[in-house]
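Q: For a teaching handout, I want to show students what a protein-ligand complex looks like in token form. Below are the inputs, and the small molecule is farnesyl diphosphate. Please produce the holo structure.
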Amino acid sequence: MPKKKITELKDLKIPVHVAIIMDGNGRWAKKRFLPRSAGHSAGSKTVEQICDDAWSLGIKYLTVYAFSTENWKRSESEVATLMDLLRKYMKNCLERSKKNNMRVRVIGDISRLDDDLRDSIVRLVSESSVNTGLCFTVALNYGGRDELVRAFKEMLAECKDGKLSPDDISEETISSHLDTADIPDPDLLIRTSGEIRLSNFLPWQSAYSELYFTDVLWPDFDKNELIKAIEYYNTRDRRFGGV
Ligand code: FPP
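A: Here is the structure, written as tokens, with farnesyl diphosphate included.
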């Protein structure tokens, strides 16, 4: 029997949690003979728009990879540009989250960030925690392996203090010690710009995620592209290891 062609938005099963590796800002800028910073700036506007689009489509959780533990290796000026953008973003986001009822969270090791940026993150996360709209998570100085190391250290300390027994450690125990503790695992993970790898993003959480790779560069990613990714997700048969 021919496969049913999905055309209607209302027929689509919407993933609860979508995670995105936002790649291609630099190439987007290069194509326009602009500095890389212009690509990051355009990419940051795309982030704002895609939050609204995701919520309007019925997505409940959106997680984006904004800065990895490896991104410190970029030039000093590019790191400074990204940090400034994040500073601006966190400030604007406080107002936006009040308007659109968005809850913002940050995963990653924020202890390495400048005090002012850290303070605005703490304020944004705390003030938006009562919101009931999109749960938007920004991965900042995030690395999946680093997150696992921090989780294991915490579990070992709890074992030492007698709060946790090694025999009781299960997959749930590990999940509950990750930065994403009360966020469901992503159903769909998207990477833009044609690279086919996960780059240390949510390695534990994405064990059963559907993966969608697109050549579209992040600043060009829009609601239509998000719908294409959801259409792809709808063609997948998720068995979680079963038959
Ligand atoms: C990859 O593009 C993108 C990043 C390293 C950072 C993503 C950051 C943003 C979209 C802006 C700030 C984020 C928020 C949440 C406001 P690339 O520079 O690696 O692109 P390239 O591979 O084409 O060089």
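A: Two things your students might notice: Residues 22-27, 40, 43-44, 47, 64, 66, 71, 85-86, 89, 138, 193, 218 surround farnesyl diphosphate (CB under 6 Å). The helical segments are 25-31, 36-57, 76-100, 115-127, 144-160, 171-176, 223-235.
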